[in-house]
Specification:
37% of the residues lie in helices and 20% in strands. Strand 1, helix 4 and strand 2 form a beta-alpha-beta unit. Helix 3 packs across helix 4 and helix 9 packs antiparallel against helix 10.
């Protein structure tokens, strides 16, 4: 028992969460074996990064929650989370993980411009399931996704960001990672969210550009991006809309790596 307590304290100190033991114990339970140094490193990096967006008692939306990797991070930061995921196997995993955590509500649906049903193209790697046929066509030959196959489909229920906000409230941060369907998700939003992220793929940048256009009509956002899973912003300074659009046109196509666009309202910084 003493050794277990010692390892727990080390993890708390490493992540900067000491003495918030309850949060780390929840993470440990979900991610055994928790002694793995790579897992501790990944958790610590993500917590440090998202601390710039998420505060204690904030509400976060995790859209495309998959197995809850980002939900875990938001919980460690003291947030409440609405985890949105349409894949049944992933939903079952989320329900198992968070059955005793009242701060998580799982929405077993996708998001789109309007409520209804959509066709989900299932992948042999569940991280790549998508409702965007054009995205699949763009990336299926990409060397980074070698071995991915989309051979089955499933009809899934979808709702909208607006409807989620009506039910749960306005989130402080919304992560959107839906494999090329991001524009349809953003079209289901009619008000500005203080901060959000949108996954992008260098072979399908038109969609994220249109997402940025849409956000620009909703509020006075500034932008940055992160490449891969670096948990670091690529730019030292946040960019206005016009400059970010230039990055999308001129820089990101040549980088050959996926990433996330981050947007935050200038008014939320005051």
């Amino acid at each position: 028992m003493a050794a277990v307590k010692s390892r727990m304290v080390n993890l708390l100190q490493f992540t900067g969460l000491y003495p918030a033991a309850a949060g780390v114990k929840r993470w440990v339970t979900r991610h055994a074996p928790w002694q793995d140094s790579d897992e501790r490193e990944e958790l610590a990096a993500a917590v440090r990064f998202y601390r710039g967006f998420v505060k204690t008692a904030n509400l976060c939306f995790d859209v495309g929650a998959h197995h809850g990797v980002r939900t875990d991070v938001f919980l460690e930061l003291g947030a409440r989370v609405v985890a949105v995921e349409p894949q049944p196997d992933c939903v079952r995993e989320l329900e198992r993980k968070y059955a005793r955590d009242g701060r998580v509500e799982i929405v077993p649906k996708g998001l789109a411009e309007q409520e209804g049903e959509k066709t989900l193209h299932e992948c042999n790697h569940s991280t790549c399931a998508s409702m965007a046929e054009d995205w699949i066509a763009s990336v299926k030959d990409w060397e980074r996704l070698k071995g991915r196959k989309w051979e089955t489909t499933r009809t899934v229920a979808v709702t909208t960001l607006d409807r989620l906000i009506e039910r749960h409230g306005l989130p402080a941060f919304c992560k959107i990672d839906v494999e090329g369907f991001e524009l349809q998700v953003v079209k289901g939003l009619s008000r500005a969210i203080p901060a959000l992220s949108l996954e992008y793929n260098p072979r399908h940048l038109g969609v994220v550009g249109e997402c940025v256009d849409r956000l620009h009509t909703l509020g006075d956002y500034e932008f940055n991006y992160s490449e891969g899973d670096s948990m670091e912003l690529a730019l030292a300074d946040w960019l206005p809309y016009e400059d970010l659009r230039s990055e999308i046109r001129e820089t990101l196509p040549g980088r050959n790596v996926y990433g996330d666009i981050y947007a935050r309202l200038r008014s939320a910084l005051k």
